Amino acid sequence: MRILQLNFERGWRGGERQTLLCLRHFRAAGHHAALLARRGEPLARAARDEGFEVHEVQNAFSLCGKLLGIARRYDILHAQTANTLTWLALLKPVLRRPIVFTRRTAFPVSDKKQDKTRWKWRRADLLAAISEAAAAEPRRLGLPVAVIPSAIEARPFDIDRARAFSEQFDLQGRKVIATVAALTREKDPCTLVRAVHALRRTRDDFIFLHLGAGGDAEQAARSLAAELDVQDCYLFAGFQQGVEDIYRLMDVFVLASAHEALGTSVLDAFLYSVPVVSTNAGGLAEVLADGRGLLCEVGDHEALARAMGRVLDDAGLRSEMVRKAHAFVLEQHDPRRMAHRYLDAYQAVLTRFEARG
């Protein structure tokens, strides 16, 4: 098959990692995989560096023009983001190619947007979701959904990079608690700041690292950290290339999301044997079930603080959580398994499309 992946996002987050993983494993399975992405962004650069065919566009207008010129070269058009599905849905009568869309969020659809969203989702020949939480809204609107979980794969450990990071942030001799999340409202960094403040009242043997790009809650989080006087133990470390190396330094991983379809940063923690504490938002409840992590109610900073302290103090609990989580991520979130789920679904879609003529 000839497969075109579409991802028009800026920056580098979970969806971009998943798009690149799809490209790699579709190619490894013997298919031609190409990418349409925003010009100059990390995903476009990474895919080009790995030898993929990359179509770079600057804006929505040029995206549409590019699609009209190249879409008929491909058997499958796979929208990895909601904005690219919008343009594929509008252009579908002209493109005359089967469309696949992966939903990566668990946000509820507002009443005002239901009809528009339902129309757009129905234009996809296959609607996939990365978790049951992400599938809930399409199903509520009466649409069939295939759940194809995101995948994760280990990177070789760069010990020099990890050592340099540890020295830069003076981590030696302290417990390292960390999150990997953009400073956005859905990730709820202010609850994390409050949780660290609460934990600080009971112990001073740790440092908290917030790894991730800025966002619409950054100023609020920084202001709250100053107000609560936790700047010495709550460090805003920013976006880090090769963040996988830093997981090897962590004693506990924490996610305080208010909304989360799956949480690939949690899968990273599972893969690198870091015990996880998180809220029970969306797909996080699925991922951390059966003792794979400790779950707290969304917004409950005191519960997060207690859970972090419990994990730090209980070696037996840490060992059992890590054992279960590592086995789970290897079995359920293997990239080859994800790729073959998509490829089987593509083939079924293509067969139906060709039968319709």
Structural commentary:
The chain has 2 domains: 173 residues, Rossmann fold; 174 residues, Rossmann fold, CATH 3.40.50.2000. The model has no long low-confidence stretch (mean pLDDT 96). Helix 1 runs parallel beside helix 2 and helix 1 crosses helix 15. The two termini are 18 Å apart. The chain is 47% helix and 17% strand. The chain is built from 15 helices and 13 strands. A 7-stranded parallel sheet has the order 3-2-1-4-5-6-7, with helices on both faces. Strands 10-9-8-11-12-13 form a 6-stranded parallel sheet, sandwiched between helices. The protein is elongated, with a radius of gyration of 21 Å. The protein is α/β, with parallel strands linked by helices and 357 residues long.
Summary keywords:
single chain, 357 residues, Rossmann fold, 2 domains, seven-stranded parallel beta sheet, 15 helices
Sum this structure up briefly:
This protein is α/β, with parallel strands linked by helices.
Please write the CATH class name of the largest domain. Answer: Alpha Beta
Numbering strands along the chain, what is their spatial order in the largest sheet? 3-2-1-4-5-6-7
CATH architecture of the largest domain: 3-Layer(aba) Sandwich
Helix content: 40-55%
Would you tell me the overall average pLDDT? Answer: 96
